[in-house]
Amino acid sequence: MKAYIVDPFTQLVTPTKYNGNYETISKHIGGSCRMFDVVRLYHTDDYDYVDDHVYIDDEGLYVDDQYFWMHANYPIPLAGRGLILGGTPDGDSTDVGTALSTVMKDIRMIGNRFQLQMMMAFAKAEKLTVSPDGYDEDYRPFVWKHHDSPIIDNASLSH
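The chain above was modelled as a monomer; its predicted structure follows.
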């Protein structure tokens, strides 16, 4: 099924295929994760209640030499590579429904742990706001002001 990989190490977002077997998610997001978590990014279909979400390493914050990224629909940084898929209310995976160009527009690469710490310190100095979805700290206004979206590779858009 159609999916996207968000890779903060290479600062690329690329299309990929996912075979539907949850045991292969680890291979897509780095190969060594023992557990993964899911973050909803887009609500794509009111009729079938399909959402696009990202699988991330649940222990990604503890990985040495980690890199981070943010999404416009989530107020805090995400750690490591992510696998974006569609999903049903029953928990089944489906093709990602959001266009790659939209996903790329909605992502900002933060960098390594030091760059993340600096971004968070500067963002807090600018007085973080409480997000509309209830999170106490919302880094999106600062990140969207100071970070560019990934470069769109025309070869990726043709997939």
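Residues 86 and 100 are 13 Å apart (CA to CA).
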